[in-house]
Amino acid sequence: xxxxxxxxxxxxxxxxxxxxxxxxxxxxxxxxxxxxxxxxxxxxxxxxxxxxxxxxxxxxxxxxxxxxxxxxxxxxxxxxxxxxxxxxxxxxxxxxxxxxxxxxxxxxxxxxxxxxxxxxxxxxxxxxxxxxxxxxxxxxxxxxxxxxxxx
Length: 151
Prior knowledge:
Layout: H1 3-16, H2 25-72, E1 94-98, E2 105-109, H3 110-115, E3 117-119, E4 126-128
Antiparallel strand pairs: 1-2, 3-4
């Protein structure tokens, strides 16, 4: 039995006892209490209906998400049958360099490496990455300052 049904039952008892026609103070208080209970029951019915709708929408979203996960392949356990050709292992490479100003060991990724300039988070100084040789007068024509042969 719902709250609204129970309130209707009490209302029926109230009317059946003739309390609705009574002018006593107790009957008036009971009548007001029944009105409040009726309003509470109506609001609870509305809340229950809304929760049912939300539950259905959540189920639909959950089903859609399962479909998306199946398409995207988010399940790492069954991602690839052949571990050597697995696309899930596309990890970014990281490199470690020391700041020439403070000596802090920094870990950088490909983007920072390609940019060639690092902003040290410890001392705040910028420095350029230099992968050339120390001998600047090698004459090989590659502008790197090395003395190796280029093919």
